[in-house]
């Protein structure tokens, strides 16, 4: 079993399961050796291997390119932050934590206002809530914050003309990632471990094998 047999779905599943807190690969290794793939099959295998192996490097590279695109457009930075918050509010845990921290901060200056920011009580019938628990942020329904932040961010994107900058920066970052993953010679030690893990673990799923392959990444690679 090799990377050529790994589908895009397997790779996505593995990227969801793997630990993203691992540090990026050294620059000397990232730009160590480049060769042309000898066939489309070799290119397909190399692309998936490098996307997994250098995932942190690619993420940092794309963020860096986006940041460079924002340098001349400060409003675009604010718009990007508001857009990120709008998306984050859709997560129940983040919305609850954000509301709690804001309410706690306001309570230090105005306890009366903080009391108004508490979410309404949900009626309980026979020990169970009478309706599905709604998410509130600072005493208001979550959708209000999502709508307001999204609207303001859209206006800032329009005023700063930053949306086109973001699209171009993102396209450039993805193109740079594709080119590097296509021509960077795969790490031989990592490939050897991946093939061995597929046999030794019995591999219930390909994603399981890919995640186990992560154990080889902490060792010094052979470029």
From TrEMBL:
Membrane topology field = Multi-pass membrane protein
Q: Which InterPro entries match?
A: Prenylated_rab_accept_PRA1
**Subcellular location field:** Endomembrane system; Membrane
Q: What's in the keyword line of the UniProt record? A: Membrane, Transmembrane, Transmembrane helix, Transport
The organism's superkingdom is given as Eukaryota
What cellular-component terms does GO give this entry? endoplasmic reticulum; membrane
Q: Which GO terms describe its biological process?
A: vesicle-mediated transport
What are the TM regions of this chain, as residue ranges? Answer: 52-71, 77-98, 143-160, 166-183
> Is-annotated flag, keyword Transmembrane helix?
yes
**Coiled-coil boundaries:** none
Q: What does this protein do?
A: May be involved in both secretory and endocytic intracellular trafficking in the endosomal/prevacuolar compartments.
Which family does this protein fall into? Answer: Belongs to the PRA1 family.
- Please report the name of this protein according to its UniProt entry: PRA1 family protein
Q: Which organism does this sequence originate in?
A: Cucurbita argyrosperma subsp. sororia
